[in-house]
Design goal:
single chain; 491 residues; alpha/beta; 45% helix
Length: 491
């Protein structure tokens, strides 16, 4: 499926709890409408969105956050827009709650309550971090409060953007495999080779995106759309010719955690313990660990992994993302405000890249999906959800406006009277530590395994993937296993 073919079906609805609130309040006060009927209308809107968006893509809206004056937006309508998820129980709309410091807990509790019912929405975004991130790229304060998740978790200024999100994706695990073609005198030298390869890749991707934009500027026009996007009319330019106020290019870096875990495994086995040479390990990887299962399990289970609050490995995630941010700032596209802006989320690309990527030093076998976002790799959090959150927030998310997605899975069997409070506190910890976005599945492994065996009985089972949701039984076998293997925390 070509996502561009369906681009016209992915328009987001902005923040309906802001622009619909005056109408809702007026009609409630006049007796023109009841809350129950208004909820029904919102539910019907959600069904309409679900009917027109193809599986694998995303469309929806956001609620909460702050308005252009910096005032918290939270009302009965905010809760009702989230209630749609629980009422219709479908893949779409993709709903995001923008949480900001000072917001009443009841809105976050409402989100957690819905998630505890096994729904895959809402995703919870850090309004304060996102606003600061937008401002760091030159977006004025008032506009920085008016943003939308353009498809999954990518953030764009509302009504002012011709932003190319996730264009293109970079396979971080493959970058490492590409430089394992020789021996290195030190781990630092290996790391430098990876970063040099990464820099070249960023440069090539930037040049390719600019080339495509030039072609579109010459051959494509969208005059009707341009009438509704700032500042096309003021500049007298079509959106394809650079008329929009913001023309960002958002690169996405997939498999970051595989790179980090693999680097640490190489540091341990090759450079610290000197058990294997690069050549010897590369030969084992090329054979997909055939005859070396004990080594694979040791690499996978005995060497520390990102996501367990171990500073010695977690620091590499921050170091690499910091390098990416600095490198992207060197480039400006052909149009006004054509910043190159990074992200670390995956959509479905962790499966696509994984299917074509050989075995990696972290113990991952060839063909298996890469890490599902910017949190720990599937099944590698061994010290509980708090440690996972601590690892995922040791590095700055602010400049990664292209999107940061952290997935967490909780066992439905472990739910109790205090589960909502526990989840709320975990989410707030993530947000208070500077987390960008968190998305949660509440389901047990047994249910997922039954759905694999008897898909006809689980046609309505929805799970969160890497920024979007989908029906579990429609996923590929590899993607199903990726979701199953995610660490199942207790609440």
């Amino acid at each position: 499926m070509d996502p561009q073919k369906f681009a016209d079906q992915q328009y987001q609805l902005g923040h309906p709890d802001r622009y619909l609130l005056p109408y809702y309040t007026k009609d409630i006060q006049s007796g023109e409408i009841t809350k129950e009927y208004a909820q029904l209308l919102l539910d019907c809107l959600g069904i309409q969105i679900n009917m027109r968006v193809p599986n694998g893509l995303s469309s929806g809206y956001m609620v909460g956050g702050r308005d252009e004056d910096g005032e918290i937006v939270a009302s009965e309508l905010t809760e009702m827009c989230m209630q749609v998820i629980d009422d219709i129980r479908l893949v779409y709309p993709s709903v995001g709650l923008c949480y900001t410091e000072g917001m009443e807990d009841k809105y976050l509790e409402k989100a957690c309550e819905i998630l505890l019912h096994g729904r895959s929405h809402p995703a919870i975004f850090n309004d304060d971090v996102i606003t600061e991130g937008l401002k760091s790229y030159g977006v004025p304060e008032k506009e920085a409060h008016d943003y939308i998740h353009s498809t999954c978790v990518e953030i764009t200024p509302g009504r002012s953007s011709n932003v190319w999100v996730a264009s293109p994706y970079t396979n971080m695990a493959q970058l490492l495999l590409d430089v394992l073609d020789r021996e290195y005198e030190s781990f630092g030298e290996l790391l430098a080779a990876v970063l040099e390869k990464l820099d070249t890749h960023i440069k090539e991707n930037f040049e390719e995106q600019n080339r495509i934009r030039k072609i579109r500027a010459e051959l494509s026009v969208t005059p009707l759309l341009s009438c509704f996007v700032n500042d096309c009319l003021e500049r007298g330019l079509d959106i394809e010719q650079g008329g929009a106020k913001y023309n960002w290019i958002m690169l996405s870096f997939v498999g970051m955690v595989n790179l980090v875990d693999s680097l640490y495994a190489l540091k341990t086995v090759v450079f610290d313990n000197k058990e294997l040479s690069i050549k010897e390990l590369k030969e084992i990887l090329d054979k997909n660990f055939e005859g070396e299962e004990l080594l694979r399990l040791r690499l996978l289970n005995s060497i520390p992994k990102y996501g367990n609050d171990v500073d010695d490995i977690d620091k590499y995630f921050g170091m690499i993302t910091g390098h990416i941010i600095s490198e992207c700032k060197k480039y400006t596209g052909m149009h006004t405000n054509g910043n190159l802006i990074p992200s670390v989320f995956c959509w479905i690309m962790h499966e696509r890249f994984g299917s074509e990527t050989g075995a990696t030093p972290d113990g991952r076998k060839a063909g298996f999906p890469l890490g599902d976002g910017s949190g720990p790799c599937q099944g590698r959090e061994m010290n509980g959800p708090t440690a996972s959150i601590l690892s995922s927030t040791k590095w700055s998310h602010k400049e990664l406006i292209g999107g940061v997605a952290v997935n967490m899975k909780f066992s439905k069997k472990s739910l109790g009277a205090n589960s909502c409070s526990t989840m709320k506190n975990l989410v707030k910890t993530y947000l208070m530590r500077g987390g960008f976005e968190i998305q949660i599945n509440v389901i047990d492994r047994g249910t997922l395994e039954k759905a694999v065996k008897n898909p006809e009985e689980y046609q309505d089972l929805v799970v969160r993937i890497g920024g979007y949701s989908d029906y579990f039984v429609k996923l590929s076998p590899n993607m199903q296993q990726e979701v199953i293997l995610r660490t199942e925390h207790q609440l």
